[in-house]
Amino acid sequence: MNISQISFYIALISGIILIIGIIIDLKNQKINLWPITEASLFGIIELTIWHVFYIATVVFAILTAIPLIEFSIINWVGLILFIIGFCFSIWAIIELNIKESYGVKGEFCSTGPYKYCRNPQSTGIIIHFLGAVLFTYSVLMIILTLIHMILLILLVFAEEPWLHEKYGQDYLEYKEQVPYRFIPYIY
């Protein structure tokens, strides 16, 4: 087994674990797996799985793209989307602050990319991995991207009740001002 295959299986397994965890969270409101609201051993384990999932997916994408000797226009478009999505996510993380991104700290943010959609980090990651699909031409990358998309959509539904509980009227007003979860003027 080569590094590319290993990174695919690591991403696949960690992504499935995260999806199962979020589904459990959604089914049982007493279990709060997301967002992580306090620094704990469980929170550290959960964040580690998240980072392993993301990093293994990126490693797989890069290793899959390397053998492509000559990039076509589609590969270049994919690479550009990959970079734009990454930058958009980083902008959202910087705007929100890393601690707040993980739900540890409590400032409400509606500036920067949060003016356009309520989940710009997720939007950026989705664009990031859709770009990876285009620059790798890999069916396995499609599978990992779909897992990321499913997970990010589920996270929104797990996070919204918590945001409403934590920020109350401020969050309801924000939802009215910014009705789009992921894509401005679409969804």
General form: globular
Number of strands: 0
Strand content: under 5%
How far is it from the N-terminal to the C-terminal residue, by CA? Answer: 40 Å
User: What is the number of helical segments per DSSP (H or I, 4+ residues)?
Assistant: 7
State the domain count.
1
Give Rg in angstroms: 17 Å
Poorly predicted runs are: none
Keywords: Membrane, Transmembrane, Transmembrane helix
Membrane topology: Multi-pass membrane protein
Protein name: DUF1295 domain-containing protein
Transmembrane segments: 6-26, 47-67, 73-94, 125-158
Topology:
Elements: H1 3-27, H2 41-65, H3 73-96, H4 98-101, H5 120-136, H6 139-167, H7 169-177
Helix pairs in contact: 1-2, 1-6, 2-5, 3-5, 5-6, 6-7
